[in-house]
């Protein structure tokens, strides 16, 4: 019995290895598998490694002064087998410099001098730095002494920057409200398949970060509140006792606690009445830190149970202008998101202690924070917040390389947004929004760029960037869910997430993990959806009478293997629907016959893809002559 189990496991592994070879794999990715840092069973290989940093950061923000000053110490650990002679630093806020490469235009209010490094010491030795030359979002610095495998290097950096007047993913919300993201120099990712991540930030694609440990000190004037990634370590030192009490109450409350109201703010006695207060936050094994400050934002909070096994609660907080009606719902919307996503899809307990919704202009996710814009449409506000909170799992629970493979996080957030939306507003309304917002513009745009394969690196895309990141991959995940069924799909998804939580998965890790988790060869499906320039267009060619019913001849003009319903009308006026999963295309993705068993006479038939919108619906119908 034991021997047969071992033999079966070996055969299964060999099967998956053979299957994985069916998918195109670039040479750099092949090299990672050959080195044993990635495994064809979907798991990190026996030689997998990733580097790590310990960041201690102190910044001061003294509005209305736009000059933000920072001091940090980075201890960077080289867990790789390579000797590193240089470090690549990410200076994301250099995107604000005049003349820097970016995808879009920039107005005067967006432009600043960028990151200005005042000094940098490496292991105690001062390193020359030229701010004029270090003008891009990547800056390579040489080390006086090579960083050996399994050794560390210490960097001490002082820097400053002007926060931009125009707020996007970060910047001034108003004259005394700042949102600070990507605000500190950091060591970029050095990984097993690409080495240093030197992709420039162009203000379009997103980010790729190591999992680091952070201590963040934020110094602001009295009467300013601070919200940030992580856990506040000194609430009793920065808040008056009444507000400490309210905050603590919120950690176990289902109901919204108004920690600080408009009326409280007017009294200017919420914080300790020192000239300045330093708020201290910590977060470990996380990919970034973000900060919001204001002297006139309301502060709401409550919490939700996210893990039934332990009874663990996560805090849901919101910071916003009092006259923004939508944000008065943010805490309860967020409680619903945290609980539903933890218990249903993806069905992995929310991994962090807190989430904060901060009113800004970005509609953007950060670890433990979202920066969302105000809207008068309360329903759409919930939709956007759901999407951004869903990003917690992709890319923050899974260390996705968004710069290169954005479909690995945006596609999942888009999928979860529809799944949770269905429970909030109903199937019909949720799917109408999904089709209009995520599918319609792609499927009815015949531009070449829109049909580039999803696997195309995001960094190489201009046209097709949004659809390749959001709608198309989301449809692939829904198609696979339809193919496998909910239980097996969730089992496979959890296999992938368990394999790569806290690590850096790439698409082939997803493909291989889903194969292993489902116990099926899905490479025919992955090849179809990710490596082709297909789209969705089915053609119902003819319907013929057959034994015990009818046979439908269906051509797949567009090429994507999609689920669909055959909806028929009978001569007696009744109707019926017959669901077809993507499995019908496995052996022939271009042409199939579908048999409908019935004793009745069919007078008309139509193919209905639901959210899988068809490029040309005119050839989806048949009517008996």
Number of helices: 15
Shape, principal axes of CA atoms? globular
Low-confidence regions: 1-21
- Please state roughly what percent of the residues sit in beta strands, choosing from under 5%, 5-15%, 15-25%, 25-35%, 35-45% or over 45%: 25-35%
What spatial order of strands do you see in the largest sheet?
5-4-7-2-1-13-17-15
* Helix vs. strand class: alpha+beta
Measured distance between first and last alpha carbons: 62 Å
Largest sheet at a glance?
Answer: 8 strands, mixed
pLDDT average, as an integer?
96
Total DSSP E strands: 30
Spatial extent as radius of gyration: 27 Å
Give the helix level as a range of percent: 25-40%
Question: What do these coordinates show?
Answer:
With 625 residues, this protein is of the alpha+beta class. Helices cover 27% and strands 31% of the residues. The chain is built from 15 helices and 30 strands. The strands form seven sheets. The chain has an eight-stranded mixed beta sheet with strand order 5-4-7-2-1-13-17-15. A six-stranded mixed beta sheet has the order 16-19-20-21-23-22, sandwiched between helices. Strands 8-9-18-14 form a four-stranded antiparallel beta sheet, with no helix packed on it. A hairpin with a 4-residue loop joins β26 (564-570) and β27 (575-580). α9 (410-425) packs across α12 and α12 (471-484) crosses α13.
């Amino acid at each position: 019995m034991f021997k047969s189990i071992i033999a079966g496991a070996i055969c299964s592994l060999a099967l998956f290895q053979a299957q994985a070879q069916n998918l195109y794999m670039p040479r750099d990715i092949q090299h990672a598998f050959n080195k044993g840092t990635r495994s064809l069973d979907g798991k990190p290989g026996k030689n997998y490694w990733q580097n790590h940093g310990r960041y201690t950061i102190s910044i001061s923000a003294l509005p209305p002064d736009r000059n933000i000053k920072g001091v940090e110490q980075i201890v960077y650990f080289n867990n790789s087998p390579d000797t590193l002679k240089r470090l690549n630093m990410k200076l994301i806020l250099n995107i604000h410099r005049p003349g820097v490469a970016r995808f879009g235009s920039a107005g005067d209010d967006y432009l600043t001098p960028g990151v200005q490094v005042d000094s940098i010491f490496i292991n105690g030795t001062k390193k020359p730095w030229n701010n004029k030359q270090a003008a891009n979002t990547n800056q390579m610095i040489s080390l006086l002494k090579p960083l050996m495998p399994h050794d560390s290097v210490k960097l001490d950096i002082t820097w400053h920057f002007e926060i931009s007047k125009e707020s996007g993913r970060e910047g001034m919300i108003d004259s005394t409200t700042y949102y600070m993201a990507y605000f500190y120099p950091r060591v970029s990712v050095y990984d097993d398949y690409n080495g240093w991540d030197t992709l420039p930030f162009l203000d379009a694609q997103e980010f790729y970060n190591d999992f680091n440990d952070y201590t963040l000190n934020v110094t602001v004037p009295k009467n300013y509140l601070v919200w940030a990634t992580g856990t506040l370590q000194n609430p009793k030192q920065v808040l008056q006792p009444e507000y400490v009490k309210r905050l603590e109450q919120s950690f176990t409350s289902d109901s919204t606690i108004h920690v600080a109201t408009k009326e409280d703010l007017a009294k200017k006695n919420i914080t300790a009445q020192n000239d300045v207060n330093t708020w201290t936050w910590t977060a470990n094994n996380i990919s970034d830190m973000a900060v919001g400050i204001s002297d006139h934002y309301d502060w709401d909070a409550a919490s939700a149970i996210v893990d039934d096994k332990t009874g663990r609660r996560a805090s849901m907080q919101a910071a916003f202008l009092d006259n923004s009606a939508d944000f008065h719902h943010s805490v309860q919307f967020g409680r619903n998101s945290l609980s539903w996503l933890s218990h249903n899809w993806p069905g992995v307990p929310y991994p962090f202690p807190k989430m904060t919704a901060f009113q800004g202009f970005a509609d953007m996710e950060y670890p433990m924070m979202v920066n969302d814009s105000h809207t008068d449409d309360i329903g759409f506000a919930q939709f956007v917040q759901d999407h951004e909170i869903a990003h917690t799992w992709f890319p923050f629970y899974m260390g996705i390389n968004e710069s290169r493979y954005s479909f690995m996080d945006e596609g999942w957030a888009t999928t979860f947004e529809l799944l949770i939306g269905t429970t909030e507003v109903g199937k019909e309304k949720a799917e109408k929004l999904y089709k209009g917002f995520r599918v319609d513009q792609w499927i009815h745009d015949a531009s070449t760029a829109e049909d580039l394969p999803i696997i195309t690196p995001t960094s190489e895309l201009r046209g097709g960037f949004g659809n390749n990141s959001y709608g198309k991959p989301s449809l692939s995940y829904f198609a696979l869910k339809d193919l496998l069924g909910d239980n097996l799909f969730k089992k496979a998804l959890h296999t992938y997430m368990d394999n790569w939580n806290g690590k850096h998965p790439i698409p082939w890790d997803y493909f291989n993990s889903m194969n292993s988790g489902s116990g099926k060869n899905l490479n025919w499906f992955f090849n179809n959806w990710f490596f082709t320039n297909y789209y969705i267009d089915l053609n119902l060619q003819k319907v013929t009478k057959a034994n015990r019913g009818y046979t439908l001849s269906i051509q797949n003009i567009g090429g994507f293997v999609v689920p669909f319903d055959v909806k028929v009308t009978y001569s007696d006026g009744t109707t019926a629907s017959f669901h077809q999963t993507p499995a019908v295309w496995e052996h022939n993705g271009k042409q199939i016959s579908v048999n409908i068993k019935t004793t009745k006479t069919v007078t008309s038939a139509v193919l209905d893809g639901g959210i899988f919108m068809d490029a040309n619906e005119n050839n989806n119908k048949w009517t008996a002559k």
